[in-house]
Specification:
ATP-dependent 6-phosphofructokinase; 11 helices; binds 6-O-phosphono-beta-D-fructofuranose; 324 residues; alpha/beta; seven-stranded mixed β-sheet
């Protein structure tokens, strides 16, 4: 392998730049050339490439977002799009790819590999932490800290006004952010897609909170929650059934994806980037690099895509106990 392409794809996450830096510099360390591919698979189709050397990634380890930009490419889902991408890679003498992204990005990489036998290694980058084969995805730790910081501020105003806040956090299909940030911020209840607590239990819990003398309540809801009502409908429901509560809604949205990566995410990105390139140089392909039991290990990309990341159900009990 003489030339490796690197791209970021799907929703950006803090730590992606640190991973790009690690990939580029590991290539430089091993005297392999590295090409940055802009706007994910879309840039691969459009031939948006730029040679990168060790000095082209100076001072990016601390930056949120991705200097390579990102996209969710519809064209790459078509055979024609992938053929165009393959031709561009061949014309630029790129002979392997490092894909930094989430499940959709890995699915694209896998299909591409199956069609063209093109070596691909995945680095898990998403704030959702919903990827099988790693305990932490890049950006998840930073997002947790961002969410906790914001909920702390919401708590200030909630307790000043004796209010109940429904706070919606990201996590398209997963409750990792809600569950962990919820415990970290001392939430009274946490609603996640993996566990449907039901409306009755929610009301019951809110009644108990009030009766125990709490001056404010925070309910954290993952956006992918399955309770059957969105945050505004939940507010209306509580307004109707518990008029003693003054309810407000706060949707944290995309601010959760931005900001300076935490030290944890920077170190993880560096470890994953080194391993991704060295795995390709060892002649291996079709793996995702991930952190399992504090070791950087390989998981076949196919398993990473098909497997389901599990939340730690013991945390639900912990939350129930510490929020009484
Ligand atoms: O996958 C990361 C994520 O931030 C999810 O939590 C969220 O559902 C989704 O991306 C939002 O995507 P977009 O930025 O395309 O609206």
């Amino acid at each position: 392998i003489k030339r490796i392409g690197v791209l970021t794809s799907g929703g950006d996450s803090p730590g992606m730049n640190a991973a790009i830096r690690a990939v580029v510099r590991t290539c430089a360390f091993h005297n392999v050339s590295c090409i940055g591919i802009y706007r994910g698979y879309q840039g691969m189709i459009e031939g948006d490439f730029k040679e990168m050397g060790a000095r082209s990634v100076n001072n990016i380890i601390n930056k949120g977002g991705t200097i390579l930009k990102s996209a969710r490419s519809k064209d790459f889902m078509t055979k024609e799009g992938r053929e165009q991408a393959y031709n561009n890679l061949r014309n630029s003498n790129i002979d392997a790819l490092v894909v930094i992204g989430g499940n959709g990005s890995f699915t694209g990489g896998l299909v591409f590999n199956q069609e063209y036998n093109f070596p691909v290694i995945g680095i898990p980058g998403t704030i959702d932490n919903d990827i099988y084969g790693t305990s932490f995805t890049l950006g998840y730790d930073t997002a947790l800290n961002t969410v906790v910081e914001v909920i702390d501020k919401i708590r200030d105003t909630a307790s000043s006004h004796n209010r109940l806040f429904f706070v919606e956090v990201m996590g398209r299909d997963a409750g990792h952010i809600a569950l962990n940030a919820g415990i970290g911020a001392g939430a009274e209840e946490i609603l996640i897609p993996e566990e449907d607590m039901g409306l009755d239990r929610l009301l019951d819990s809110l009644r108990k909170s009030k009766a125990s003398g709490k001056s404010s309540s925070i309910v954290v809801i993952a956006e992918g929650d399955k309770i059957g009502k969105n945050v505004f409908e939940l507010k209306d429901y509580v307004d109707e059934n518990m008029p003693e509560y003054d309810v407000r809604v706060s949707i944290l949205g995309h601010m959760q994806r931005g900001g300076t990566p935490s030290c944890f995410d920077r170190v993880l990105a560096s470890r994953l980037g080194v391993k991704a390139v060295e795995t390709l140089l060892e002649g291996k392909s079709n793996y995702m690099v991930g952190l399992l039991k504090d070791e950087i290990l390989l998981t076949p990309l196919e398993h990473a895509v098909k497997g389901k990341s599990q939340i730690d159900k013991k945390l639900i009990r912990v939350s129930d106990i510490v929020s009484i």
